[in-house]
Design a protein that fits this description.
Layout lengths: L1 H10 L3 E3 L11 H6 L5 H8 L5 E5 L7 H6 L3 E6 L2 H10 L4 E4 L11 E6 L9 H14 E10 L11 E4 L5 E11 L2 E10 L2 E10 L3 H10 L2 E6 L6 E6 L5
Parallel strand pairs: 2-3, 2-5, 3-4, 5-6
Antiparallel strand pairs: 1-10, 6-12, 7-8, 8-9, 9-10, 11-12
Length: 242
């Protein structure tokens, strides 16, 4: 069932180039294997009780998964790429992995926390966004927590820009080209001393009001913004306990 969706992503402006396998939405498996860990594990850890059960949606190659498992969380990693999940298995052998599009996920249990990172909430398609958020609500306990990563306020405007990672590679946001209806086609480059990858994807700007409105439609409410820049958000089920 996921193949038509993947083909649609290709037609709608998602793609990638570079060494190794590329997933249908433009993510390079070998690139994601090499990206360094940022501050995400620390932000997530600080917002959750120790040892919480955690569902990570869109885990990719486990850049964040493995550090969370090392911190004692019982992580279940979900991705629609078997190649990505194979890398998760190498990095974190004790982590359960589930091959599925996020929108289609129906696990027979709920979790203390659900994480939706990688700015996935900014997908261009409203139905897909609603599906992502409904999956979060469906799998979190009524007194649980949902952590969502948003784009920064200037992500589409401050281009081109680049960041030099201490690990020895450069990330460039080359362009953010409007394609209509509030959606931009974003092009990124990842330059390593021995390899180069590109990724192109569609991203929709979301004001705070619009973002919170989408949460409400899925039965979630903002508890608080975890970072001063508003990129990480802690949400809870509407009417849920603390």
């Amino acid at each position: 069932m996921s193949e038509p969706r993947n083909d649609q992503r290709k037609r709608d402006g998602h793609g990638g180039s570079g060494p190794g396998p590329i997933t249908p939405d433009g993510c390079a498996v070998d690139l994601y294997r090499r990206l360094s860990v940022g501050t995400e594990p620390e932000v997530i850890e600080a917002a959750l009780p120790a040892g919480a059960s955690l569902l990570e949606l869109g885990s990719g190659a486990g850049r964040v998964t493995a550090p969370l498992a090392e911190r004692g969380f019982a992580v279940t990693a979900v991705d629609e790429s078997a190649e990505m999940l194979a890398v998760v298995g190498e990095r974190a052998p004790g982590v359960e992995t589930v091959l599925s599009p996020i929108e289609d996920l129906r696990l027979p249990r709920r979790f203390d926390a659900v994480v939706l990172g990688s700015f996935l909430v900014h997908t261009a398609d409203h139905r897909t966004r609603q599906g992502l958020l409904e999956t979060c609500r469906r799998h979190v306990k009524d007194d649980g927590r949902v952590l969502i990563q948003r784009e920064g306020a200037d992500y589409h405007d401050d281009v081109p820009r680049e960041r030099h990672d201490p690990a020895g590679y450069t990330v460039r946001i080359v362009s953010a080209e409007p394609v209509g209806d509030g959606v931009d086609r974003v092009r990124c480059e990842y330059v390593f001393p021995d390899a180069r990858w590109t990724q192109t994807f569609l991203s929709r700007k979301l004001s705070t009001e619009a973002f919170e409105g989408h949460l409400e439609q899925a039965g979630l409410v903002v508890d608080r913004y975890l970072t001063d820049d508003g990129i990480w958000v802690l949400a809870r089920p509407a009417g849920g306990g603390v």
